[in-house]
Write a structure and sequence with these properties.
two-stranded antiparallel sheet, 6 strands, alpha+beta, elongated
């Protein structure tokens, strides 16, 4: 596997469902759990998250959450993903797949 392939794999691991966690993912892995939402905001609130239409902070994303206690780094990340929602998705209803042709003209091909 080349260095480029390794870099692409690392980038894919840092970005999940349109949110690029960057170093935050590693920092959350090092954290002791359980941890409250307030503690997450206090420690990581200024951390920027890259989303498709710009950036936001952990504090901005978690502001709408009530009192919550996280049991693992995955729970923190999932909560962030839930709160970011559609903002993290690029172009809405975009597909890079071809356009479906609904015409009645069906052609038979013989190989």
């Amino acid at each position: 596997m080349s260095d480029e392939d390794l870099d692409e794999n690392e980038d894919a691991e840092e970005k999940e469902m349109g949110v690029e966690f960057g170093s935050l993912a590693d920092e959350l892995d090092e954290e002791e759990y359980p941890i409250s939402k307030e503690e997450v905001v206090e420690k990581y609130g200024d951390h920027e998250l890259n989303i498709s239409d710009g950036t936001t902070t952990v504090e901005e994303v978690l502001a709408g959450r009530g009192d919550e206690e996280f049991q693992s780094p995955n729970e923190v990340q999932q909560s962030i993903l839930n709160m970011v929602g559609g903002e993290a998705v690029g172009r809405q209803r975009y597909s890079d797949r071809g356009i479906e042709d609904d015409s009645d003209e069906k052609s038979d091909q013989s190989f």
